[in-house]
Write a structure and sequence with these properties.
By secondary structure, this protein is mainly alpha-helical. It is built from 5 helices and 2 strands, in the order ααααββα. A two-stranded antiparallel ribbon has the order 1-2. β1 and β2 form a beta hairpin. It starts with a helix and ends in an 11-residue tail after the last helix.
């Protein structure tokens, strides 16, 4: 449905705004050793978008590396934007009947719609962590947009 596409677009835009606020010098910040760093959080949520879209939402495979190999912050941001455009193109192609189809997921048989909801929830979860990372560095996040 189109309102879900708009919600997803706004979520991608909001995440990009968060990325711009964190200085490159703080992308290795993590609040405690057990947590991922800011850059690892961004790489993780980007990889998850690609994995779910390509494996369960009928997206075509792309050749992107989501591992932290010391790439620049600019490169990580670029991968996120590219993957965000990719997920949008996958979602826009999906018909209602495709979204209702069940797929074999490791957590059980889920509809593609449930996979999309999982992807959205996962993105929101990690974006929330990034907001905390910003605040721990005395950086005020932008006003929330989500619809």
């Amino acid at each position: 449905p189109s309102h879900d596409i708009v919600k997803w677009e706004n979520g991608l835009d909001y995440s990009s705004q968060l990325f711009e606020l964190m200085p490159d010098s703080l992308w290795n910040f993590k609040p405690v050793n057990e947590e991922m760093s800011y850059r690892e959080q961004v790489l993780h949520l980007t990889q998850n978008m690609y994995w779910l879209s390509s494996s369960y939402l009928n997206g075509e495979k792309m050749s992107l590396d989501f591992k932290d190999v010391g790439q620049s912050v600019a490169s990580i941001k670029s991968h996120f934007k590219e993957t965000g455009k990719y997920t949008l193109s996958v979602l826009k192609k999906m018909e209602e009947k495709e979204l209702a189809e069940k797929v074999n997921f490791f957590a059980g048989n889920l509809t593609r719609w449930q996979i999309f909801e999982l992807m959205h929830d996962h993105h929101t979860h990690h974006r929330g962590q990034l907001i905390v990372y910003l605040r721990l560095n005395a950086i005020k996040p932008p006003k929330y947009i989500g619809w």
